[in-house]
Amino acid sequence: MNRPDPKNVKQIACIGAGTIGGGMIAEFLARGYSVTAQDPGKDALASLERLLDQAWPILEQIGLTASASRERLRFTTDIEEAVAGADFVQESVPEDLELKVRIYERLDELVPPEIVIGSSTSG
């Protein structure tokens, strides 16, 4: 199986946009990637925007890539929409084993086998 060359990754899907996922989203945007964030939470987008408002000035001090932009962010509550066309998928849902299993079952259905799925975990 041929995995995409990491240098060719342009579009990232981030499943979960809470504290951990939001931090990863901010970093991906700061490095110039296009990101589709997915989170079903009622206030997830507003919370993510607040996190980005706090993180972006710090990321600017650290140094953004030339193509870095918050405008590269799309948000959806639909996991299928989020992963469509993704070159890399980052899972950052809460530490709930049943939830993680359901998410990975769904990703297994939606994501081509050559696409890398990263996971954040604190458990």
Describe the overall structure.
By secondary structure, this protein is α/β, with parallel strands linked by helices. The chain has a single domain, classed as NAD(P)-binding Rossmann-like Domain (Rossmann fold, 3-Layer(aba) Sandwich). 41% of the residues lie in helices and 18% in strands. The protein contains four helices and five strands.
Comma- or semicolon-separated keywords:
single chain; 123 residues; Rossmann fold
At a glance:
The protein is an alpha/beta fold and 123 residues long. The protein contains four helices and five strands.
List strands and helices in order, with pairings.
Elements: E1 11-15, H1 19-30, E2 34-38, H2 44-62, E3 73-76, H3 79-83, E4 88-91, H4 97-110, E5 116-119
Parallel strand pairs: 1-2, 1-4, 2-3, 4-5
